[in-house]
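U., I forgot to send this yesterday:
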Amino acid sequence: MYALETRKRALTLVSQGRSLNSVSREMGISRHAISTWLIRIAPIPRSPACVRCAPTPEPPPDGAAYAYVLGLYLGDGHVMSKPRQHHLTITCADAWPGLIDEAEAGISRVMPSAAISRRQKQGCTDVKSFSIHWACLLPQHGPGKKHDRDIRLEAWQRAIVDTYPWEFIRGLVHSDGCRITNWTTRVVAGERKRYEYPRYFFTNKSADIRRLYAETLDKVGVEWRAVRRGSETLNISVARRASVALMDKHIGPKY
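Result:
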């Protein structure tokens, strides 16, 4: 026999969108037992209806955190929305542990009632948040790869990005961007000298996501240019000194 608190904990995890298999593994309880409790025990209320599910939909209360998470999602995230499987996953390279912590903190601020976990993979970590409501908060989700479908912000998302443009840019850079040091040589007084300068790159296959990034850079006064890679223009570069200084002030390198 399992204690009532154990049964309630298992059912709460399921109500937040966790699969029976994942709850079974985490708690060391058989999948059959959890299925039985779902039938016999009075249903535990599911996660509180999100702001988008309310009779009058509202934007998420923490707009800054949402703008950051939206940027992370558009870069390296996906939403799973299937029966008994509802979660947001942000994949972060292990080279930047600070980014993993920030991703988890941002997700928790947007969806504080949802269970959150990390899953270690080769060279990266998946930060997962389990809630059916991620499909409401990230309506860009859908089957297939993001660069194969249209990506457009809804009016309420656009309003948040317009209010918190740097948080949105920061999420995009933290997912699909980087800050590097470029170098070039110049002949000065007959002598060839090497010069180094910082530069931000953003790379994404989706033309829609690159457009959203570029439009937001325009709004905050950052100069940029598209850079070809082979036959495609997949990169957006920020190299002007004043613009790099702005990016350093608000974004900075991953850590």
